Recover the amino acids of this structure.
């Protein structure tokens, strides 16, 4: 750790999580009631939590809390994904682009043949996933059942 970050980053993140748990009343239902965008807004108020870090947190929490952190409701988009999206979508001017909306549209508009291949791949991979039927990660079951990519998957790719 260096003097400018190190332990202070960890303390800030701990404070962030403690405050989020407090906002949620310490319950899964309270976290659901906050919703995806409110949770994102909470994270954004803390130092060292930018879009890329928050997106990573969302991707890790989505499997366990898909009703609280739903990457199809909102996923933060970092600069690398923005550059990739700009190239894939052929956009020249990216000012004012709603990247979450663009990535959600990409996830929902996958051509039928490719969508079928993705569904088969998702379901085939899930057969060897030790968490496919684990109640602690309902987001895994949810995605396997849908067989479709999420806006979070598009952002990561």
């Amino acid at each position: 750790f260096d003097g400018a970050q190190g332990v202070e980053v960890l303390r800030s993140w701990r404070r962030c999580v403690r405050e989020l748990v407090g906002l949620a009343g310490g319950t899964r239902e309270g976290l659901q009631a906050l919703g995806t965008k409110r949770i994102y807004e909470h994270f954004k108020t803390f130092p060292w939590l930018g879009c890329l870090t928050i997106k990573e947190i969302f991707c890790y929490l989505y499997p366990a809390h898909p009703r609280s952190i739903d990457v199809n409701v909102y996923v933060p988009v970092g600069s690398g994904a923005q550059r990739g999206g700009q190239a894939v979508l052929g956009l020249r001017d990216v000012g004012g682009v709603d990247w979450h909306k663009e990535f959600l549209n990409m996830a929902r508009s996958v051509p039928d043949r490719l969508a079928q291949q993705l569904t088969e791949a998702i379901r085939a991979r899930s057969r060897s996933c030790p968490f496919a039927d684990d109640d602690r990660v309902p987001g895994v079951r949810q995605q396997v059942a849908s067989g479709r990519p999420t806006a979070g998957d598009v952002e990561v790719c």
Remarks:
- The chain has a mean pLDDT of 89.
- The radius of gyration is 17 Å.
- Residues 44 and 50 are 7 Å apart (CA to CA).
- The longest helix spans residues 7-23.
